[in-house]
Design goal:
The chain contains six helices and six strands; from the N terminus they run ααααββββββαα. The protein is of the alpha+beta class and 164 residues long.
Length: 164
């Protein structure tokens, strides 16, 4: 006589349990916040398509009459002069949807010209500046392959830690 025990594994239930525990861990450990900050830092430190000579001259002229951001360089296209635009980039984190939205917020007030007037006359939304930068081939909110790898590595590390 033998006692026979049959073990069945319901893959769907296990998958759901793992997914639920992983999501809870991601939220509790602040992984979404950390990933969002990593992306924002990468965006703020990126360099983009080279500037035309006329743009370099304009940036130098405008910098004479306006405060500049610490990362400003007349010759480098890093999307900052005063820092208004680049510093407006924030992350909206939706923890229930496990979603991070990176976007610029607010308006850019414009710059004082050498003659003392402001250009442009009205504040421009940072969303409009983003659209214009995209038209010029400067994909500011595009993640590099390296940044994607860093985010995946961060997520995998947290998942491994959770299931040790």
């Amino acid at each position: 006589m033998v006692l026979k025990i049959k073990l069945t594994i319901d893959g769907k239930k296990i998958r759901k349990l793992i997914e639920k525990k992983t999501k809870a861990s991601i939220i509790e450990t602040g992984l979404l916040d950390e990933a969002a900050q990593l992306v924002i830092d990468k965006i703020r430190s990126s360099n983009f398509k080279p500037l035309k000579d006329s743009t370099v001259k304009w940036r130098k002229k405008i910098a004479q009459t306006n405060p500049t951001h610490p990362k400003y360089s007349a010759n480098k296209s890093n999307s900052t002069l005063s820092g208004e635009f680049i510093d407006s980039i924030v992350a909206d984190i939706n923890k229930t949807q496990m979603e991070v939205i990176i976007k610029p917020t607010g308006d850019h007030p414009g710059y004082f010209t050498v003659k003392g007037s402001v250009t442009p006359k009205k504040a421009v939304s940072n969303q409009d500046i983003l659209k214009r930068q995209n038209e010029l081939g400067r994909k500011i909110l595009k993640l590099s392959a390296q940044t994607k790898k860093e985010i995946i590595k961060l997520i995998k590390k947290r998942i491994r830690e959770e299931f040790k």
